[in-house]
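Figure 6 in text form: structure in, sequence out.
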């Protein structure tokens, strides 16, 4: 059996490059949210920062990734329903190559979309005092977050009975940052909401990225963020791998 992950990755990336509107479509929603909060709600929100776009961007990046991974589910669903997945199984290639090609495609396409969103944020006034190591740390956290959500996306991509079912799981993920420190400090929330916000994955990830970009104190947030990302990724990977074996034998 040959590892053909690179070949399969190339196939998927060529499909995306032939239809770049996928990346643009994924970027539009988070950019519109960023514009809305920065220019409509921003004046009424007190975050203790001089530049609200700097405060806002980490959460917007997570929303961007959550929107993008839905396409992983869709691509997998289409491959399964069209019979293409079954054809791949009969070829002399490692079965793990099939899933990893989809996962790596998600990583690359989401990275491109994140760059687009950051460019728009720069045009809106975003400025960072982060050095190269800080940016690499941010890239690492976003990469792990993408992998974690992508492996989650693989599960409905394999199990769903309809296109709508394959992508519907992403909606709660997109809205999760709204109940976190992404847009406002958690101290301003009612007790029950605050308790949830402070103990869900997005808050620690947002806080860690925000601190890295703005020379703040990262503290324990980065370790909590990494633990959430790695934990979700490992669990989702094993569930997705099991479902893949059950689905196609």
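Output sequence:
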């Amino acid at each position: 059996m040959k590892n053909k992950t690179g070949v399969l990755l190339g196939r998927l990336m060529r499909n995306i490059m032939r239809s770049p509107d996928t990346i643009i479509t994924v970027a539009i929603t988070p950019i519109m949210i960023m514009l809305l909060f920065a220019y409509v709600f921003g004046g009424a929100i007190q975050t203790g920062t001089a530049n609200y776009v700097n405060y806002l961007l980490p959460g917007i990046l997570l929303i961007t990734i959550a929107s993008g991974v839905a396409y992983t589910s869709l691509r997998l669903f289409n491959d399964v329903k069209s019979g293409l997945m079954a054809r791949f199984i009969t070829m002399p290639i490692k079965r793990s190559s099939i899933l990893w090609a989809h996962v790596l495609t998600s990583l690359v396409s989401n990275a491109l979309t994140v760059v687009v969103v950051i460019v728009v944020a720069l045009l809106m006034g975003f400025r960072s005092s982060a050095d190269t190591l800080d940016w690499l740390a941010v890239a690492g956290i976003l990469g792990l977050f993408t992998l974690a959500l992508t492996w989650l996306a693989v599960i409905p991509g394999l199990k769903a009975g309809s296109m709508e079912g394959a992508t519907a799981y992403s909606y709660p993920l997109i809205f999760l940052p709204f109940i976190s420190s992404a847009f406002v400090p958690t101290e301003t929330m009612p007790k029950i909401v605050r308790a949830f916000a402070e103990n869900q994955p997005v808050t620690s990830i947002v806080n860690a990225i925000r601190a890295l970009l703005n020379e703040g104190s990262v503290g324990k947030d980065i370790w909590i963020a990494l633990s959430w990302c790695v934990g979700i990724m490992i669990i989702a990977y094993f569930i997705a791998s099991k479902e893949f074996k059950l689905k196609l034998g």
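Caption detail: The CA atoms of residues 132 and 138 lie 10 Å apart.
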